[in-house]
Amino acid sequence: MGHGALSKRQLIQKPFYSLVPQSLFPDFRSLFHYNVPMTAAFPPRRRSKLPPPGETGQEALYLRSLSDRQVNVQVKLRDGETVRGWIEYFDDAMVRLTREGLPNLFIYKHQIRTITETAHKRTPRPRATPGAPTGMEAAG
Predict the structure, then answer these.
(1) What is the distance, to the nearest Å, from the Cα of residue 22 to the centroid of all Cα atoms in its chain?
(2) Mind giving me the DSSP string for 82-134?
(3) Which of 122, 57, 125 is closest to 86 using CA atoms?
(4) Residue 116, burial from CB neighbour count under 10 angstroms (0-12, 13-18, 19+)
(5) Phi, psi of 7 (to 5 degrees)
(6) pLDDT of residue 101
(7) Rounded to the nearest 10 degrees, how much is the dihedral formed by the CA atoms of 52, 53, 57, 60?
(8) Which end of the chain has less neighbouring CB within 10 Å, N or C?
(9) Residues 6+ apart with CB under 8 A from 96
(10) Residue-level pLDDT at 50
């Protein structure tokens, strides 16, 4: 072997940090601590989770969509009662439920458990005048 070369036995017996020239890493030996309990040099940072925002705006967008489309909805209340109609108006605290043939309801939002779409509100078809051709007669 050459003058600076180490045998396999010497490599095994020597600690790793002794093989690294100190000119490259002057404080290299201080990185190795044997038989020392593992503790983090820097304590782990805990991400402080922020609570979710109280208002995301999604509720208002959904209610506006239901109102604009005049979709029939089923509203289940906290006391278990279910009412049907379509949402005509809403604000931060309440919803106005318009019902056909029944009185309209103003419902506080905190009393609502769920709102479920049932079907699109259909516009009444114009009644045919007597003697006017229907769609079948006009086509054929």
Answers:
(1) 54
(2) EEEEEEEEE-SSEEEEE-SSS--EEEEGGGEEEEEEEEEPPPPPPPPPTT---
(3) 122
(4) exposed
(5) -75, 170
(6) 93
(7) 90
(8) C
(9) 87, 88, 89, 90, 104, 105, 106, 107
(10) 77
DSSP-derived 3-state class of residue 75: strand
Residue 131 is which amino acid? G
Placement of tokens 């906290």 in the chain: 78
Q: How far is CA 5 from CA 8, 9, 18, 105, in A?
A: 10, 12, 14, 93
The pLDDT value recorded for residue 9 is 62
Question: Residue 57: its pLDDT value, please?
Answer: 81
pTM higher than 0.85, yes or no? Answer: no
* Domains (range + CATH), the chain: 58-120 (2.30.30.100)
